[in-house]
Amino acid sequence: MKFQQLNAFKAVYELGTMMAASAHIHVTQPAISRLVASLEHQLGFALFQRIRGRLVPTDKGTAFYLEVGKAFSALEHLEHSARDIAEQHHGSLHITAFPMLSNSFLPAILGRLMRETPGLKASLKSYRSEEVLRRTEIQSCDLGFADTDITSASVTAIPVWGDCVCIVPANSELAAVPCLTPADLSGVPFIRYENSDSAQQALDRELQLAGIHSLDVVEVSFASVAALLVAEGLGVAVVDPFTAQHAQLSGLNIVIRDFHPRIPYRFQILYPAFRPISELARAFVDSLFSQAEDAGIRLRYDRNDDL
User: Fold this and answer.
1) 66 and 16: one domain?
2) Where does the HTH lysR-type domain start and stop, copy by copy (predicted)?
């Protein structure tokens, strides 16, 4: 089965005629006909039938087109990956990160590093964790930050843990309480994450143990959205401290309070496994931990890991 056969079939299926397909992929009409016919012979079933002079896909032809579409999508994905790899430059620092960090804490760290390293070429791109992992797997970034349990032989992963905090509107009575507990959330409008979120699952367990039913008013996907809603006075939320501090420094009218028992959040620091860790990547990670400590954010990780 050759690419030219699949390309011809795809063009005929999508455009409806041999003539249109010929013009689209710049192949003569007789060549298009031969490619489709040879593909049908190889497959052992007809892809099209002629009805009143028109080419109409057979049921098997339609089913096969769906599979061909997947193959072409994979090729496009491969092209994007190749472009990512080709755009890497010596002496640069390319970071991919999930929104919890890319939208809050990491820009300030990168800014400081760039001021300390004249001429540094850098990028900081925000993706969902699955895409961060993929880009680290194909070695198209120097450093990644993601919330994922997936492991890969192409990636060196260092797990990091911390404790969530509670954010409340500044005019809330809860703002006067130094450390909040599940009991404090009873009857209070609450902004929650999706059920698949690990921190939300941990909080739900603690609420259940305490016999507390949260008054959920809004469900969100990102902590930054939760912080905006808290600032609007719609309720309270339990979020990571990076987002909480960034929201407060950005002028949002919220108060940050500790929460007990601890509600853990986690992320992983990802390095491409098939090349040495760059000094710039090491410096960035060192700065992450030192600046987090300066901000009162306690991070835990396996001290045996090579950071």
Assistant:
1) yes
2) 1-58
